[in-house]
């Protein structure tokens, strides 16, 4: 479809992008403000970054947040993957559908409901609120997304591949490790990735189950934002934006690397054929 | 049979309320090419899956080299399968796909290499080792699937409609190749297909199946020439089937005319069905004719004319003729006594075989 | 595989029981207790008896509706035109990227932008309207909520449009439909599933955005989410909070049914 540069449809798209990114760049812009407000830019300065790096409490919170995200997404990926395999193995349609519906409850529930019900649950169990309750919650709400990422890959898999592997002498474990895992790896990776971002992003659930002793970044930002503007938060958001870009870049790089590996193999083969 | 390799005795398979297989009994000899032939849903693939060990029989025993293998899992059987959709592992290249079974058996690397190269040579895919599965054509994928199975040196190779995804020309070529491969390897092939042409071209022996039962078993020529019933006659090749009455041995009445035939051993006046193959009908003039028909359509097929016609009683007659005629014309058709195949209603395969044997002996004595 | 199934089901089934079923049962159970821990129906009586709660619920649904409508209006054209660009996957990635920025940070940015001397008011001064109170109004709440939800609406709609077989559009043109007819009779009906998924993804969270009502809405807006947070974390009246939670769950189920894809048997594969 040919389209002129100044087509009004393009202008609309640009406008949407502008609106989507303006607040983010606004934040980042003011992180370099020599002043202390987000309204008047009084000169360039790194001072808020310096403050941020000197703020050991904040750094600790960032590390805790990353630790929670990493641990919860890792554990959720393992449980979710096993869950997807279990669901895949179910023969009865009604049972499969009901388990899938149960699986999706946490996907569609509002955060406050998850937070409130987990709070009741942990209190009921007598679990002390803090690191462990936050970790458990993050694992819990990340599991369904992993299942939803892995299951379609499993369903896509031709069932005769399993028969073929068995036919060629593979045991159940070998079928799992040599045929099923390689096939569903992309789904597992996506699931892990999604779980990781879910965990980093979560505020509401954490807010409910965190108690007093433990904080994640979201909770800390909420607390600070309620007190008003602090440009240290701006500096932090600039760094987080950078981190997101790095993650995307890394993801893109891995994809490119995989593709080029295939391409290299093809070239090698081509060379062999020419010989 | 001396070297029976597989024996099914009273095998049943039930899926819920439906019987996929009813009382299947057969024996397979070592080194032969068998074909299970039948329409989709007739149970042929079920037999294959039971043989391979993917599906359990509901009743009956399956023996392999004289030992019951009902409970032996698929990965322990000396039987390999070529799947209909090939089921090649998409994450492995050609070499690794073929090597899969050997790697699982922890075969030495060097041995694996030799065997894989040899297997690929056998299926004429030398030089394709490093290719990805997605990079090769359907025909080549099919060869890889065969190589992957035979590299494990199975006693029996099962092939589940492996040619169905190929185009017509490649199919014919592969039929010849498969047959040659089987003879070279000297192992038993069990081939499943719904294509009668394929079955006739390749097999030592054909099992014609329908609705979970084996209707007839025999060499391609025997099944073609002496179909046991309407279904087999219709399924194998094209046929004209009309109702008739057995007047005496070697005498059958069709459409009010009495004809000499080559069948015997039936009751007098027994109602029967009569098959005459379209290529056995010869166009002739009305005065020399055994039957007179009116031509409805005529289609040129290259090697023959395919002529549809009808007689006065309204029966349709399909004629394959090298000579052409004209639509609407009255023509005579002529056939020899041995072109008439008489089929009894509801005759079992054993009775059928016994009856054929009895009068074939007669005939021999007469000569 | 049968033997192994039970083995890998264990952790997953434990999760289903402990973190899906148990919390749901507990929140329903808790809703029958008053603040003094007595088993009673008083929470429900209070909820349905007093105008305050019903009005709050109605307002919350109304706001969620407006937010969803605004988001949809902006998102559909975006998704549609986005799908026609070259490098559409790259543009889509750029749409998704902002969702990786923590929601709180985005809300925080708007505190700056909408403040008395912020960028928005600079703009209003520039076009001659003069500074306005933007922050802590209902309008600002709706705008920020819509801003946050837009990518979640665009994504499913984009996917639905992207999956659309282009020859259907060509067929429609071929049969004499105008661009508008093609859109209204072919494209939109076929992408309705995407719209439904988007509505689901936006409407339900919009009922519970308590942090935005606090940070941006300045407590002018009370949503179901705000009320639940208030009861659980401020007034510690868990029974009443749970009651509102149960209402929210019911609302959610209703939405799910209303927008759920009723897949026809033998319908198209996805």
Automatic annotation (TrEMBL), chain A:
Cite the Pfam families for this sequence. Answer: BPD_transp_1
Entries under PROSITE patterns matching the protein: ABC_TM1 (PS50928)
- The membrane-spanning stretches of this chain are 12-32, 66-90, 102-125, 131-151, 179-200, 235-254
Sequence similarity: Belongs to the binding-protein-dependent transport system permease family. CysTW subfamily.
> What is the protein named?
ABC transporter permease
What is the recorded membrane topology of this protein?
Answer: Multi-pass membrane protein
Subcellular location per UniProt equals: Cell membrane
Q: Which residues form the ABC transmembrane type-1 domain?
A: 62-252
User: Which SUPFAM superfamilies does the record match to this protein?
Assistant: MetI-like (SSF161098)
Alphabetically ordered keywords of this record: Cell membrane, Membrane, Transmembrane, Transmembrane helix, Transport
Automatic annotation (TrEMBL), chain C:
Q: Does the keyword Cell membrane apply?
A: yes
Location within or outside the cell: Cell membrane
Q: What is stated as this protein's family in its record?
A: Belongs to the binding-protein-dependent transport system permease family. CysTW subfamily.
Principal subcellular localisation of the protein: membrane
PANTHER family this protein is in?
INNER MEMBRANE ABC TRANSPORTER PERMEASE PROTEIN YDCU-RELATED, INNER MEMBRANE ABC TRANSPORTER PERMEASE PROTEIN YDCU-RELATED-RELATED
Every ABC transmembrane type-1 domain range: 57-259
Task: Give the InterPro entries listed for this entry.
Answer: MetI-like (IPR000515), MetI-like_sf (IPR035906)
Which species? Loigolactobacillus jiayinensis
Annotated Gene3D superfamilies: MetI-like
UniProt name for this protein: ABC transporter permease
Q: How does this chain sit within the bilayer?
A: Multi-pass membrane protein
